[in-house]
């Protein structure tokens, strides 16, 4: 089917919007189960689920642009380790988050699953210690 003028296409342009609560550390978690790229050795497709977690500073990534950015790797030959670090580097450069972690969980290839984790911590940022509350009585009933 031919593309219409309003069709979406892969793009390397990521867009942002202002952090709605920059005075608070909060975690944004995204699961992207349809990532694909090509094996640089064989040209065969590699499939992965990407898990992005980040604590924004002043900017958040806009979801449609992230979807189109992730889609842009579909026809690129790249190693799992390289693409995981490139995506994280691009997001860190754009967002300058307090913290970011990208986990790539690739499907089996030759009997081997690849799981790559890359992290970023802003200079001087330290997470607040977790608050451990006793279990609420109403939850025990």
Can you give a write-up of this model?
Helix content is 21%, strand content 35%. It is an alpha+beta fold and 141 residues long. The strands form 2 sheets. It has a 4-stranded antiparallel beta sheet, covered by helices on one side. The longest helix is centred in the middle third of the chain and has 16 residues, at 80-95. It is globular.
Tell me the layout of helices and strands:
Layout: E1 16-18, E2 28-38, E3 45-55, E4 59-61, H1 63-71, H2 80-95, E5 99-109, E6 112-121, H3 137-140
Antiparallel strand pairs: 1-4, 2-3, 3-5, 5-6
List keywords for this structure.
EC 1.7.1.13, 3 helices, alpha+beta, 4-stranded antiparallel sheet, two-stranded antiparallel sheet, 141 residues, GTP Cyclohydrolase I, domain 2
Give the gist of this structure.
Pfam families: QueF. By secondary structure, the chain is of the alpha+beta class.
By DSSP (H or I, 4+ residues per run), the number of helices equals 3
What structural category arises from helix and sheet content? Answer: alpha+beta
Strand order of the largest sheet: 2-3-5-6
Uncertain residue segments: none
CATH structural architecture of the domain at 28-123: 2-Layer Sandwich
**Share of residues in helices:** 10-25%
Strand content: 25-35%
Query: Main β-sheet, in a few words?
Result: 4 strands, antiparallel
CA-based shape: globular
Mean pLDDT comes to: 92
Query: How many distinct beta strands?
Result: 6
Radius of gyration: 18 Å
CATH level-4 homologous superfamily of the domain at 28-123:
GTP cyclohydrolase I, C-terminal domain/NADPH-dependent 7-cyano-7-deazaguanine reductase, N-terminal domain
Order of helices and strands: EEEEHHEEH
CATH class of the domain at 28-123: Alpha Beta
And the CATH topology of the domain at 28-123?
GTP Cyclohydrolase I, domain 2
Q: Distance between the terminal alpha carbons, to the nearest Å?
A: 56 Å
Catalytic activity: 7-aminomethyl-7-carbaguanine + 2 NADP(+) = 7-cyano-7-carbaguanine + 2 NADPH + 3 H(+)
Protein name: NADPH-dependent 7-cyano-7-deazaguanine reductase
EC number: 1.7.1.13
Function: Catalyzes the NADPH-dependent reduction of 7-cyano-7-deazaguanine (preQ0) to 7-aminomethyl-7-deazaguanine (preQ1).
